[in-house]
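Explain my protein.
***
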Amino acid sequence: MGSGFDQRRTQGVAVGAGSEAQNRTVKDWLTSIDWGQLRLPSFQRGVAWDAKRVASMLNTIIHDLPLGVALVLNVGDEEQFVSRPLVSAPDTNELPREHLLDGQQRLTALYRALRDNDPSITYFVHFPELDEDPRNDDEDESVAWYRRWQIREVAYPLWVDSPAECLRRGLVPVRLLDPANDESATWVEAATAHLEPGEEITDIAEYKALSAELSTSRENLKKLINAKREIVSYFNLPFLRLPATTSKEIALSVFVNMNTNAKPLSAYDIVVAELEAATGERLKEMEAKLNAEIPRLARYLALDNAVLQTQALLQGKAPNQRGYFDMDYTVFVENWSRMTQGLRRAVETIESLRIYDGERLPTAIPIPVIAALLADEPATGDRRGQVDQIMRRYAWRAFFTGRYESTAASRAAADHKGLAQRLSGDENAVVPVFNEDLFPLPTDSELRTAKWPKGQGSLARAILAATNYFGARDFADDTALSAENVARREYHHVFPNKLLDEADLDPMKALNCVLITWKTNRSIGRLDPITYLKKRAENALDPREITERLESHLVPYATLAQAGPYVQAAGPELRQVVQPDYDAYLDQRAVYVREFMIAVCAGRLPHLRDILDSLTLHEEHVDGSTS
Protein backbone atom coordinates (compact mmCIF):
# COMPACT_ATOMS: atom_id res chain seq x y z
CA MET A 1 0.00 0.00 0.00
CA GLY A 2 1.16 3.62 0.38
CA SER A 3 3.72 5.04 -2.04
CA GLY A 4 3.37 2.11 -4.42
CA PHE A 5 -0.22 3.08 -5.17
CA ASP A 6 0.58 5.74 -7.80
CA GLN A 7 2.32 3.16 -9.96
CA ARG A 8 -0.57 0.68 -9.97
CA ARG A 9 -2.63 0.15 -13.08
CA THR A 10 -5.95 -1.60 -13.33
CA GLN A 11 -7.41 -2.67 -16.68
CA GLY A 12 -4.87 -0.47 -18.45
CA VAL A 13 -5.86 2.72 -16.58
CA ALA A 14 -3.33 4.70 -14.52
CA VAL A 15 -5.49 4.94 -11.41
CA GLY A 16 -3.07 7.22 -9.59
CA ALA A 17 -3.12 9.95 -12.21
CA GLY A 18 -5.85 12.00 -10.55
CA SER A 19 -5.30 10.96 -6.94
CA GLU A 20 -4.29 13.43 -4.26
CA ALA A 21 -2.37 12.55 -1.08
CA GLN A 22 -3.45 14.34 2.10
CA ASN A 23 -2.99 14.17 5.87
CA ARG A 24 -5.83 13.84 8.37
CA THR A 25 -5.75 13.43 12.14
CA VAL A 26 -7.66 10.76 14.04
CA LYS A 27 -9.74 13.54 15.59
CA ASP A 28 -10.84 14.71 12.14
CA TRP A 29 -11.51 11.17 10.91
CA LEU A 30 -13.82 10.57 13.89
CA THR A 31 -15.65 13.84 13.28
CA SER A 32 -16.15 12.91 9.64
CA ILE A 33 -17.59 9.53 10.67
CA ASP A 34 -19.84 11.01 13.37
CA TRP A 35 -21.33 13.59 11.02
CA GLY A 36 -21.96 11.05 8.27
CA GLN A 37 -19.49 12.73 5.92
CA LEU A 38 -17.57 9.46 5.48
CA ARG A 39 -19.48 6.31 4.57
CA LEU A 40 -18.82 2.87 3.13
CA PRO A 41 -19.86 1.90 -0.41
CA SER A 42 -22.24 -1.03 -0.34
CA PHE A 43 -19.76 -3.51 -1.83
CA GLN A 44 -17.43 -3.26 1.17
CA ARG A 45 -17.20 -6.43 3.23
CA GLY A 46 -18.09 -6.55 6.91
CA VAL A 47 -15.79 -6.25 9.89
CA ALA A 48 -13.03 -8.84 9.60
CA TRP A 49 -10.32 -7.86 12.05
CA ASP A 50 -9.95 -9.86 15.23
CA ALA A 51 -9.04 -8.39 18.60
CA LYS A 52 -5.35 -9.18 18.20
CA ARG A 53 -5.10 -7.17 15.00
CA VAL A 54 -7.09 -4.28 16.46
CA ALA A 55 -4.77 -4.20 19.46
CA SER A 56 -1.76 -4.19 17.13
CA MET A 57 -3.14 -1.12 15.35
CA LEU A 58 -3.89 0.64 18.63
CA ASN A 59 -0.35 -0.10 19.82
CA THR A 60 0.96 1.56 16.68
CA ILE A 61 -1.12 4.65 17.36
CA ILE A 62 -0.33 5.09 21.07
CA HIS A 63 3.38 4.83 20.26
CA ASP A 64 2.96 7.37 17.44
CA LEU A 65 4.29 5.09 14.70
CA PRO A 66 3.26 5.17 11.01
CA LEU A 67 0.10 3.21 10.29
CA GLY A 68 -0.52 3.26 6.54
CA VAL A 69 -2.57 4.98 3.90
CA ALA A 70 -6.34 4.96 3.40
CA LEU A 71 -8.13 5.56 0.09
CA VAL A 72 -11.28 7.64 -0.32
CA LEU A 73 -13.43 8.58 -3.27
CA ASN A 74 -14.83 12.09 -3.30
CA VAL A 75 -18.61 12.25 -3.64
CA GLY A 76 -20.03 14.91 -5.95
CA ASP A 77 -23.66 15.99 -6.20
CA GLU A 78 -24.79 12.35 -6.16
CA GLU A 79 -23.38 9.16 -4.68
CA GLN A 80 -22.18 6.66 -7.28
CA PHE A 81 -22.76 3.78 -4.85
CA VAL A 82 -25.38 2.95 -2.29
CA SER A 83 -23.62 3.57 1.00
CA ARG A 84 -23.89 2.78 4.68
CA PRO A 85 -22.27 4.15 7.83
CA LEU A 86 -19.33 2.38 9.42
CA VAL A 87 -20.36 -0.25 11.95
CA SER A 88 -21.72 1.44 15.11
CA ALA A 89 -21.52 4.94 13.58
CA PRO A 90 -24.68 7.11 13.48
CA ASP A 91 -26.80 6.92 10.34
CA THR A 92 -27.40 10.58 9.49
CA ASN A 93 -29.40 12.10 6.65
CA GLU A 94 -26.40 14.10 5.46
CA LEU A 95 -25.10 13.59 1.93
CA PRO A 96 -21.65 12.06 2.43
CA ARG A 97 -18.60 13.83 1.11
CA GLU A 98 -16.45 10.70 0.79
CA HIS A 99 -16.69 6.96 0.26
CA LEU A 100 -14.04 4.88 2.02
CA LEU A 101 -12.53 2.47 -0.52
CA ASP A 102 -9.61 1.16 1.51
CA GLY A 103 -8.98 1.41 5.24
CA GLN A 104 -12.41 0.52 6.58
CA GLN A 105 -11.06 -2.23 8.85
CA ARG A 106 -8.65 0.20 10.49
CA LEU A 107 -11.12 3.04 10.85
CA THR A 108 -13.99 0.83 12.02
CA ALA A 109 -11.76 -0.84 14.60
CA LEU A 110 -10.42 2.51 15.77
CA TYR A 111 -13.90 4.04 16.00
CA ARG A 112 -15.34 1.11 17.97
CA ALA A 113 -12.38 0.86 20.34
CA LEU A 114 -12.42 4.58 21.16
CA ARG A 115 -16.19 4.61 21.59
CA ASP A 116 -16.16 1.29 23.48
CA ASN A 117 -19.40 0.25 21.76
CA ASP A 118 -18.61 -3.40 21.06
CA PRO A 119 -20.41 -5.32 23.84
CA SER A 120 -18.22 -8.38 23.31
CA ILE A 121 -14.84 -6.76 23.97
CA THR A 122 -13.18 -3.85 25.77
CA TYR A 123 -9.74 -2.45 24.99
CA PHE A 124 -7.29 -1.00 27.50
CA VAL A 125 -3.88 0.62 27.57
CA HIS A 126 -1.71 -1.26 30.05
CA PHE A 127 0.65 1.00 32.02
CA PRO A 128 3.18 -1.30 33.76
CA GLU A 129 4.04 1.34 36.36
CA LEU A 130 0.41 1.30 37.57
CA ASP A 131 0.07 -2.51 37.70
CA GLU A 132 0.03 -3.92 41.24
CA ASP A 133 0.22 -7.56 40.10
CA PRO A 134 3.57 -9.07 41.21
CA ARG A 135 3.53 -11.26 38.10
CA ASN A 136 3.72 -8.22 35.84
CA ASP A 137 6.84 -8.48 33.67
CA ASP A 138 5.99 -5.75 31.16
CA GLU A 139 8.26 -2.80 30.60
CA ASP A 140 6.40 -0.94 27.86
CA GLU A 141 2.90 0.42 27.57
CA SER A 142 0.74 -1.83 25.42
CA VAL A 143 -2.86 -2.44 24.41
CA ALA A 144 -4.76 -5.29 26.04
CA TRP A 145 -8.27 -6.56 25.44
CA TYR A 146 -10.80 -8.54 27.43
CA ARG A 147 -13.80 -10.48 26.20
CA ARG A 148 -17.20 -9.55 27.64
CA TRP A 149 -20.34 -11.61 28.06
CA GLN A 150 -23.75 -11.02 29.54
CA ILE A 151 -25.81 -13.00 32.02
CA ARG A 152 -29.27 -11.60 32.78
CA GLU A 153 -28.30 -8.23 31.31
CA VAL A 154 -25.21 -7.97 33.52
CA ALA A 155 -21.88 -7.62 31.72
CA TYR A 156 -19.02 -9.82 32.87
CA PRO A 157 -16.29 -9.77 34.01
CA LEU A 158 -17.55 -7.21 36.49
CA TRP A 159 -14.14 -5.68 37.17
CA VAL A 160 -13.97 -4.26 33.63
CA ASP A 161 -16.61 -1.70 34.64
CA SER A 162 -14.85 -0.85 37.92
CA PRO A 163 -12.32 2.00 37.53
CA ALA A 164 -10.60 1.01 40.79
CA GLU A 165 -10.16 -2.62 39.71
CA CYS A 166 -8.89 -1.53 36.29
CA LEU A 167 -6.37 0.84 37.85
CA ARG A 168 -5.14 -1.89 40.20
CA ARG A 169 -4.35 -3.95 37.09
CA GLY A 170 -2.63 -0.99 35.42
CA LEU A 171 -5.39 -0.80 32.79
CA VAL A 172 -6.85 2.43 31.42
CA PRO A 173 -9.84 2.06 29.03
CA VAL A 174 -9.04 3.08 25.47
CA ARG A 175 -12.29 5.06 25.42
CA LEU A 176 -10.59 7.65 27.65
CA LEU A 177 -8.37 8.49 24.68
CA ASP A 178 -11.35 9.49 22.50
CA PRO A 179 -10.66 13.05 21.26
CA ALA A 180 -14.39 13.85 21.22
CA ASN A 181 -15.24 12.70 24.76
CA ASP A 182 -12.95 13.54 27.67
CA GLU A 183 -14.02 11.28 30.54
CA SER A 184 -10.57 10.97 32.08
CA ALA A 185 -11.15 13.29 35.06
CA THR A 186 -14.34 11.48 36.09
CA TRP A 187 -12.69 8.07 35.65
CA VAL A 188 -9.61 9.06 37.69
CA GLU A 189 -11.82 10.33 40.52
CA ALA A 190 -13.75 7.05 40.59
CA ALA A 191 -10.61 4.90 40.30
CA THR A 192 -9.00 6.58 43.31
CA ALA A 193 -12.07 7.30 45.46
CA HIS A 194 -11.16 4.47 47.83
CA LEU A 195 -7.89 6.27 48.65
CA GLU A 196 -9.61 9.35 50.05
CA PRO A 197 -8.95 9.79 53.80
CA GLY A 198 -11.96 8.79 55.84
CA GLU A 199 -13.48 9.83 59.11
CA GLU A 200 -11.02 7.68 61.00
CA ILE A 201 -8.32 10.29 60.24
CA THR A 202 -8.81 12.79 63.07
CA ASP A 203 -5.49 14.58 62.86
CA ILE A 204 -5.92 17.66 60.63
CA ALA A 205 -2.29 17.68 59.49
CA GLU A 206 -2.41 13.99 58.56
CA TYR A 207 -5.73 14.51 56.76
CA LYS A 208 -4.31 17.38 54.72
CA ALA A 209 -1.15 15.44 53.91
CA LEU A 210 -3.13 12.41 52.70
CA SER A 211 -5.45 14.64 50.68
CA ALA A 212 -2.50 16.42 49.09
CA GLU A 213 -0.84 13.11 48.27
CA LEU A 214 -4.05 11.83 46.66
CA SER A 215 -4.45 15.06 44.69
CA THR A 216 -0.90 14.73 43.36
CA SER A 217 -1.50 11.10 42.41
CA ARG A 218 -4.68 12.04 40.58
CA GLU A 219 -2.98 14.83 38.68
CA ASN A 220 -0.13 12.52 37.66
CA LEU A 221 -2.61 9.91 36.46
CA LYS A 222 -4.53 12.51 34.46
CA LYS A 223 -1.29 13.69 32.86
CA LEU A 224 -0.40 10.11 31.95
CA ILE A 225 -3.77 9.58 30.29
CA ASN A 226 -3.87 12.99 28.63
CA ALA A 227 -0.43 12.46 27.11
CA LYS A 228 -1.74 9.36 25.31
CA ARG A 229 -4.98 11.14 24.49
CA GLU A 230 -3.01 13.93 22.84
CA ILE A 231 -1.07 11.40 20.74
CA VAL A 232 -4.28 9.71 19.60
CA SER A 233 -6.08 12.97 18.87
CA TYR A 234 -3.39 14.33 16.57
CA PHE A 235 -2.17 11.03 15.16
CA ASN A 236 -1.91 11.36 11.39
CA LEU A 237 -3.68 8.78 9.26
CA PRO A 238 -2.90 9.89 5.69
CA PHE A 239 -5.06 9.05 2.73
CA LEU A 240 -5.20 9.16 -1.03
CA ARG A 241 -8.21 10.92 -2.49
CA LEU A 242 -9.79 10.02 -5.83
CA PRO A 243 -11.69 12.92 -7.39
CA ALA A 244 -15.46 12.84 -7.74
CA THR A 245 -15.00 12.65 -11.52
CA THR A 246 -13.51 9.13 -11.17
CA SER A 247 -15.80 6.74 -13.02
CA LYS A 248 -17.62 4.00 -11.18
CA GLU A 249 -15.75 1.33 -13.16
CA ILE A 250 -12.34 2.71 -12.25
CA ALA A 251 -13.31 3.14 -8.60
CA LEU A 252 -14.39 -0.52 -8.47
CA SER A 253 -11.20 -1.62 -10.24
CA VAL A 254 -9.11 0.30 -7.73
CA PHE A 255 -11.02 -1.28 -4.86
CA VAL A 256 -10.45 -4.81 -6.21
CA ASN A 257 -6.78 -4.07 -6.84
CA MET A 258 -6.20 -2.67 -3.37
CA ASN A 259 -8.00 -5.51 -1.62
CA THR A 260 -6.58 -8.46 -3.56
CA ASN A 261 -2.96 -7.51 -4.17
CA ALA A 262 -2.11 -5.32 -1.20
CA LYS A 263 -0.57 -7.35 1.62
CA PRO A 264 0.99 -5.65 4.64
CA LEU A 265 4.58 -6.56 5.39
CA SER A 266 5.07 -8.80 8.39
CA ALA A 267 7.94 -8.54 10.84
CA TYR A 268 9.43 -11.60 9.16
CA ASP A 269 9.33 -9.93 5.73
CA ILE A 270 11.21 -6.94 7.13
CA VAL A 271 13.85 -9.11 8.79
CA VAL A 272 14.34 -11.01 5.51
CA ALA A 273 14.96 -7.75 3.66
CA GLU A 274 17.20 -6.17 6.29
CA LEU A 275 19.24 -9.33 6.78
CA GLU A 276 20.01 -9.61 3.09
CA ALA A 277 20.83 -5.89 2.86
CA ALA A 278 23.17 -6.06 5.86
CA THR A 279 24.87 -9.41 5.23
CA GLY A 280 23.98 -10.66 1.77
CA GLU A 281 22.49 -13.80 3.34
CA ARG A 282 19.04 -15.00 2.28
CA LEU A 283 17.00 -16.12 5.24
CA LYS A 284 14.66 -18.35 3.25
CA GLU A 285 17.62 -20.32 1.88
CA MET A 286 19.12 -20.59 5.36
CA GLU A 287 15.80 -21.88 6.69
CA ALA A 288 15.61 -24.47 3.92
CA LYS A 289 18.97 -25.86 5.07
CA LEU A 290 17.80 -25.76 8.68
CA ASN A 291 14.71 -27.75 7.73
CA ALA A 292 16.91 -30.36 6.06
CA GLU A 293 19.11 -30.59 9.18
CA ILE A 294 16.23 -30.70 11.71
CA PRO A 295 13.16 -31.91 9.79
CA ARG A 296 11.27 -32.66 13.02
CA LEU A 297 11.33 -28.99 14.10
CA ALA A 298 8.55 -28.01 11.69
CA ARG A 299 6.24 -30.51 13.40
CA TYR A 300 6.14 -28.23 16.42
CA LEU A 301 6.70 -24.68 15.26
CA ALA A 302 6.84 -22.70 12.02
CA LEU A 303 10.48 -22.25 11.02
CA ASP A 304 10.27 -18.47 10.77
CA ASN A 305 8.94 -18.23 14.34
CA ALA A 306 11.52 -20.69 15.64
CA VAL A 307 14.38 -18.80 14.00
CA LEU A 308 13.35 -15.25 14.90
CA GLN A 309 12.43 -16.03 18.49
CA THR A 310 15.58 -18.05 19.19
CA GLN A 311 17.84 -15.50 17.53
CA ALA A 312 16.26 -12.66 19.52
CA LEU A 313 16.79 -14.51 22.80
CA LEU A 314 20.41 -15.30 21.88
CA GLN A 315 20.98 -11.55 21.54
CA GLY A 316 19.24 -10.76 24.82
CA LYS A 317 16.11 -9.43 23.13
CA ALA A 318 12.47 -10.26 23.73
CA PRO A 319 11.07 -12.73 21.15
CA ASN A 320 8.67 -10.21 19.62
CA GLN A 321 8.59 -7.65 16.82
CA ARG A 322 10.54 -5.06 18.78
CA GLY A 323 13.20 -7.62 19.61
CA TYR A 324 13.46 -8.72 15.98
CA PHE A 325 14.00 -5.17 14.77
CA ASP A 326 16.62 -4.50 17.47
CA MET A 327 18.78 -7.47 16.43
CA ASP A 328 22.28 -7.08 15.02
CA TYR A 329 22.02 -8.95 11.72
CA THR A 330 25.74 -9.66 11.52
CA VAL A 331 25.51 -11.39 14.89
CA PHE A 332 22.35 -13.09 13.61
CA VAL A 333 24.44 -14.85 10.94
CA GLU A 334 27.30 -15.56 13.36
CA ASN A 335 24.86 -17.22 15.78
CA TRP A 336 23.29 -19.47 13.15
CA SER A 337 25.23 -22.62 14.06
CA ARG A 338 24.59 -22.01 17.78
CA MET A 339 20.90 -21.53 17.06
CA THR A 340 20.82 -24.74 15.02
CA GLN A 341 22.43 -26.69 17.84
CA GLY A 342 19.96 -25.22 20.33
CA LEU A 343 16.92 -25.97 18.21
CA ARG A 344 18.07 -29.55 17.68
CA ARG A 345 18.38 -30.00 21.44
CA ALA A 346 15.03 -28.29 22.01
CA VAL A 347 13.32 -30.76 19.68
CA GLU A 348 14.99 -33.64 21.51
CA THR A 349 13.74 -32.21 24.80
CA ILE A 350 10.12 -32.02 23.63
CA GLU A 351 10.35 -35.51 22.15
CA SER A 352 11.64 -36.79 25.49
CA LEU A 353 8.31 -35.65 26.96
CA ARG A 354 6.57 -38.02 24.48
CA ILE A 355 4.95 -35.08 22.66
CA TYR A 356 5.32 -35.70 18.94
CA ASP A 357 3.68 -32.84 17.04
CA GLY A 358 2.37 -29.30 17.26
CA GLU A 359 -1.28 -30.33 17.43
CA ARG A 360 -0.63 -32.02 20.75
CA LEU A 361 1.92 -29.46 22.03
CA PRO A 362 0.40 -27.38 24.88
CA THR A 363 2.36 -24.27 23.86
CA ALA A 364 5.31 -23.71 21.54
CA ILE A 365 6.70 -20.79 23.56
CA PRO A 366 9.24 -22.88 25.52
CA ILE A 367 10.92 -24.23 22.37
CA PRO A 368 12.90 -21.06 21.45
CA VAL A 369 13.69 -20.48 25.14
CA ILE A 370 15.11 -24.00 25.48
CA ALA A 371 16.96 -23.62 22.17
CA ALA A 372 18.65 -20.40 23.28
CA LEU A 373 19.59 -21.96 26.63
CA LEU A 374 21.04 -25.13 25.08
CA ALA A 375 22.88 -23.45 22.20
CA ASP A 376 26.24 -23.82 23.95
CA GLU A 377 25.55 -26.74 26.28
CA PRO A 378 27.50 -30.02 25.92
CA ALA A 379 25.71 -32.90 24.24
CA THR A 380 27.04 -35.58 26.60
CA GLY A 381 28.20 -36.12 30.17
CA ASP A 382 26.86 -35.38 33.64
CA ARG A 383 26.30 -31.74 32.75
CA ARG A 384 23.80 -32.74 30.05
CA GLY A 385 21.79 -34.81 32.51
CA GLN A 386 21.58 -31.93 34.96
CA VAL A 387 20.64 -29.41 32.29
CA ASP A 388 18.06 -31.70 30.68
CA GLN A 389 16.35 -32.10 34.05
CA ILE A 390 15.99 -28.32 34.37
CA MET A 391 14.69 -28.05 30.81
CA ARG A 392 12.08 -30.76 31.38
CA ARG A 393 10.96 -29.06 34.57
CA TYR A 394 10.70 -25.72 32.77
CA ALA A 395 8.72 -27.18 29.87
CA TRP A 396 6.21 -29.01 32.04
CA ARG A 397 5.62 -25.98 34.26
CA ALA A 398 5.14 -23.84 31.16
CA PHE A 399 2.55 -26.37 29.97
CA PHE A 400 0.61 -26.80 33.22
CA THR A 401 0.64 -23.25 34.65
CA GLY A 402 -0.87 -20.08 33.22
CA ARG A 403 2.55 -18.47 32.82
CA TYR A 404 2.23 -17.79 29.09
CA GLU A 405 -1.47 -17.01 28.85
CA SER A 406 -0.65 -13.30 28.34
CA THR A 407 2.39 -11.11 27.54
CA ALA A 408 4.09 -14.31 26.42
CA ALA A 409 7.12 -12.68 24.77
CA SER A 410 8.20 -10.62 27.78
CA ARG A 411 7.56 -13.56 30.09
CA ALA A 412 9.58 -15.88 27.89
CA ALA A 413 12.45 -13.36 27.97
CA ALA A 414 12.23 -13.13 31.77
CA ASP A 415 12.26 -16.93 32.15
CA HIS A 416 15.17 -17.23 29.70
CA LYS A 417 17.17 -14.70 31.70
CA GLY A 418 16.55 -16.47 35.00
CA LEU A 419 17.21 -19.94 33.59
CA ALA A 420 20.44 -18.76 31.94
CA GLN A 421 21.63 -17.45 35.30
CA ARG A 422 20.62 -20.72 36.95
CA LEU A 423 22.58 -22.72 34.37
CA SER A 424 25.62 -20.49 34.91
CA GLY A 425 25.68 -21.52 38.57
CA ASP A 426 23.53 -18.91 40.30
CA GLU A 427 21.27 -21.04 42.48
CA ASN A 428 19.45 -17.93 43.72
CA ALA A 429 18.53 -16.71 40.25
CA VAL A 430 14.86 -15.75 39.94
CA VAL A 431 13.00 -17.93 37.44
CA PRO A 432 9.41 -16.64 37.42
CA VAL A 433 7.87 -19.79 35.95
CA PHE A 434 9.23 -21.76 38.94
CA ASN A 435 7.48 -19.47 41.44
CA GLU A 436 4.76 -21.61 43.03
CA ASP A 437 3.04 -18.60 44.60
CA LEU A 438 2.72 -16.59 41.41
CA PHE A 439 2.17 -19.53 39.05
CA PRO A 440 0.71 -22.46 41.02
CA LEU A 441 -0.05 -25.80 39.45
CA PRO A 442 -3.73 -26.41 38.70
CA THR A 443 -5.94 -27.99 41.35
CA ASP A 444 -7.87 -31.23 40.89
CA SER A 445 -10.96 -29.12 40.25
CA GLU A 446 -9.18 -27.20 37.49
CA LEU A 447 -7.97 -30.45 35.97
CA ARG A 448 -11.54 -31.75 36.00
CA THR A 449 -12.95 -28.70 34.23
CA ALA A 450 -10.27 -28.45 31.53
CA LYS A 451 -11.88 -28.58 28.10
CA TRP A 452 -11.38 -30.95 25.16
CA PRO A 453 -7.68 -31.00 24.18
CA LYS A 454 -8.25 -30.67 20.46
CA GLY A 455 -8.63 -26.94 21.07
CA GLN A 456 -5.87 -24.45 21.82
CA GLY A 457 -6.03 -24.57 25.63
CA SER A 458 -2.59 -25.29 27.08
CA LEU A 459 -3.90 -27.00 30.24
CA ALA A 460 -6.13 -29.36 28.27
CA ARG A 461 -3.23 -30.30 26.01
CA ALA A 462 -0.93 -30.68 29.02
CA ILE A 463 -3.40 -33.19 30.47
CA LEU A 464 -3.40 -35.06 27.16
CA ALA A 465 0.41 -35.05 27.18
CA ALA A 466 0.36 -36.52 30.68
CA THR A 467 -2.02 -39.30 29.62
CA ASN A 468 0.11 -40.08 26.56
CA TYR A 469 3.41 -40.18 28.43
CA PHE A 470 3.40 -43.89 29.26
CA GLY A 471 2.83 -45.08 25.70
CA ALA A 472 -0.91 -44.57 25.17
CA ARG A 473 -1.22 -48.10 23.77
CA ASP A 474 -4.06 -48.47 21.32
CA PHE A 475 -7.13 -50.19 22.73
CA ALA A 476 -7.49 -52.57 19.79
CA ASP A 477 -4.07 -53.26 18.23
CA ASP A 478 -1.84 -52.45 21.24
CA THR A 479 0.55 -50.17 19.30
CA ALA A 480 2.25 -47.51 21.40
CA LEU A 481 1.94 -43.84 20.50
CA SER A 482 4.89 -42.60 18.43
CA ALA A 483 5.96 -39.82 16.10
CA GLU A 484 5.11 -42.12 13.19
CA ASN A 485 1.50 -42.87 14.18
CA VAL A 486 0.39 -39.82 16.21
CA ALA A 487 -1.19 -38.17 13.15
CA ARG A 488 -3.35 -41.28 12.64
CA ARG A 489 -4.71 -41.18 16.18
CA GLU A 490 -8.07 -39.62 16.97
CA TYR A 491 -9.53 -37.99 20.07
CA HIS A 492 -11.84 -40.52 21.72
CA HIS A 493 -14.34 -40.13 24.57
CA VAL A 494 -13.78 -42.73 27.31
CA PHE A 495 -17.35 -42.21 28.51
CA PRO A 496 -19.04 -42.16 25.09
CA ASN A 497 -20.16 -38.83 23.73
CA LYS A 498 -23.67 -40.06 22.93
CA LEU A 499 -24.15 -41.53 26.41
CA LEU A 500 -23.16 -38.30 28.15
CA ASP A 501 -25.20 -36.16 25.77
CA GLU A 502 -28.30 -38.21 26.55
CA ALA A 503 -27.51 -37.86 30.28
CA ASP A 504 -27.08 -34.08 29.84
CA LEU A 505 -23.45 -34.24 31.02
CA ASP A 506 -20.45 -32.54 29.44
CA PRO A 507 -18.44 -35.09 27.42
CA MET A 508 -15.88 -32.54 26.19
CA LYS A 509 -13.43 -32.73 29.07
CA ALA A 510 -9.71 -33.34 28.77
CA LEU A 511 -9.93 -36.08 31.39
CA ASN A 512 -12.50 -37.90 29.24
CA CYS A 513 -10.13 -38.06 26.27
CA VAL A 514 -7.69 -40.65 24.97
CA LEU A 515 -5.86 -40.88 21.65
CA ILE A 516 -6.60 -44.04 19.68
CA THR A 517 -6.50 -45.18 16.06
CA TRP A 518 -9.36 -44.29 13.76
CA LYS A 519 -10.49 -47.89 13.35
CA THR A 520 -10.84 -48.26 17.10
CA ASN A 521 -12.69 -44.96 17.42
CA ARG A 522 -15.14 -45.70 14.60
CA SER A 523 -16.00 -49.11 16.08
CA ILE A 524 -16.98 -47.86 19.53
CA GLY A 525 -20.35 -46.26 18.90
CA ARG A 526 -22.69 -45.70 21.84
CA LEU A 527 -21.59 -48.59 24.07
CA ASP A 528 -21.35 -48.16 27.81
CA PRO A 529 -17.69 -47.97 28.91
CA ILE A 530 -17.66 -51.40 30.54
CA THR A 531 -19.44 -53.05 27.59
CA TYR A 532 -16.86 -51.67 25.24
CA LEU A 533 -14.02 -52.80 27.51
CA LYS A 534 -15.35 -56.34 27.61
CA LYS A 535 -15.56 -56.43 23.83
CA ARG A 536 -11.97 -55.26 23.62
CA ALA A 537 -10.89 -57.79 26.26
CA GLU A 538 -12.44 -60.64 24.26
CA ASN A 539 -9.97 -59.90 21.47
CA ALA A 540 -6.95 -59.68 23.75
CA LEU A 541 -4.62 -62.63 24.31
CA ASP A 542 -4.82 -62.10 28.06
CA PRO A 543 -7.62 -60.33 30.00
CA ARG A 544 -4.93 -58.38 31.82
CA GLU A 545 -3.88 -56.78 28.54
CA ILE A 546 -6.95 -54.56 28.31
CA THR A 547 -6.23 -53.26 31.81
CA GLU A 548 -2.63 -52.51 30.90
CA ARG A 549 -3.63 -50.77 27.69
CA LEU A 550 -6.01 -48.50 29.56
CA GLU A 551 -3.49 -47.83 32.31
CA SER A 552 -0.99 -46.69 29.67
CA HIS A 553 -3.43 -43.79 29.10
CA LEU A 554 -3.75 -43.21 32.87
CA VAL A 555 -7.33 -44.48 32.62
CA PRO A 556 -8.45 -46.06 35.94
CA TYR A 557 -9.75 -49.43 34.81
CA ALA A 558 -11.18 -50.51 38.15
CA THR A 559 -13.23 -47.32 38.51
CA LEU A 560 -14.40 -47.57 34.92
CA ALA A 561 -15.32 -51.23 35.31
CA GLN A 562 -17.92 -50.30 37.92
CA ALA A 563 -19.69 -47.97 35.48
CA GLY A 564 -22.95 -49.15 33.92
CA PRO A 565 -24.64 -50.88 32.31
CA TYR A 566 -27.13 -48.11 31.53
CA VAL A 567 -30.53 -49.25 30.35
CA GLN A 568 -32.39 -46.02 31.15
CA ALA A 569 -33.73 -43.79 28.42
CA ALA A 570 -32.23 -40.38 27.83
CA GLY A 571 -33.07 -37.79 30.46
CA PRO A 572 -32.95 -37.26 34.24
CA GLU A 573 -33.09 -40.97 35.12
CA LEU A 574 -30.09 -41.71 32.94
CA ARG A 575 -28.23 -38.73 34.39
CA GLN A 576 -28.93 -39.96 37.91
CA VAL A 577 -27.11 -43.25 37.32
CA VAL A 578 -24.39 -42.01 34.95
CA GLN A 579 -23.22 -38.94 36.86
CA PRO A 580 -21.85 -40.73 39.96
CA ASP A 581 -19.85 -43.10 37.74
CA TYR A 582 -18.61 -40.27 35.54
CA ASP A 583 -17.62 -38.17 38.55
CA ALA A 584 -15.79 -41.10 40.13
CA TYR A 585 -13.89 -41.69 36.91
CA LEU A 586 -12.97 -38.00 36.52
CA ASP A 587 -11.89 -37.78 40.16
CA GLN A 588 -9.59 -40.79 39.91
CA ARG A 589 -8.05 -39.77 36.60
CA ALA A 590 -7.50 -36.27 38.00
CA VAL A 591 -5.52 -37.86 40.84
CA TYR A 592 -3.34 -39.73 38.34
CA VAL A 593 -2.71 -36.61 36.27
CA ARG A 594 -2.01 -34.57 39.40
CA GLU A 595 0.58 -37.05 40.66
CA PHE A 596 2.21 -37.13 37.24
CA MET A 597 2.17 -33.33 37.06
CA ILE A 598 3.78 -32.90 40.47
CA ALA A 599 6.54 -35.33 39.54
CA VAL A 600 7.45 -33.88 36.15
CA CYS A 601 7.16 -30.27 37.31
CA ALA A 602 9.78 -31.12 39.92
CA GLY A 603 12.06 -32.44 37.18
CA ARG A 604 11.58 -36.12 38.01
CA LEU A 605 11.08 -38.96 35.53
CA PRO A 606 7.87 -40.65 36.74
CA HIS A 607 7.16 -44.38 36.74
CA LEU A 608 3.74 -45.64 35.73
CA ARG A 609 3.29 -47.89 38.75
CA ASP A 610 4.00 -45.01 41.14
CA ILE A 611 1.26 -42.99 39.48
CA LEU A 612 -1.25 -45.83 39.48
CA ASP A 613 -0.65 -46.45 43.19
CA SER A 614 -2.16 -43.00 43.89
CA LEU A 615 -5.53 -44.26 45.09
CA THR A 616 -8.68 -42.43 46.12
CA LEU A 617 -11.69 -43.76 47.98
CA HIS A 618 -13.25 -44.59 44.63
CA GLU A 619 -10.73 -47.38 44.10
CA GLU A 620 -10.04 -48.41 47.69
CA HIS A 621 -13.43 -50.13 47.77
CA VAL A 622 -13.17 -51.78 44.37
CA ASP A 623 -13.20 -55.57 44.46
CA GLY A 624 -9.76 -56.77 43.45
CA SER A 625 -11.29 -59.31 41.07
CA THR A 626 -12.50 -56.55 38.75
CA SER A 627 -8.97 -55.71 37.72
Remarks:
- The longest strand covers residues 121-126.
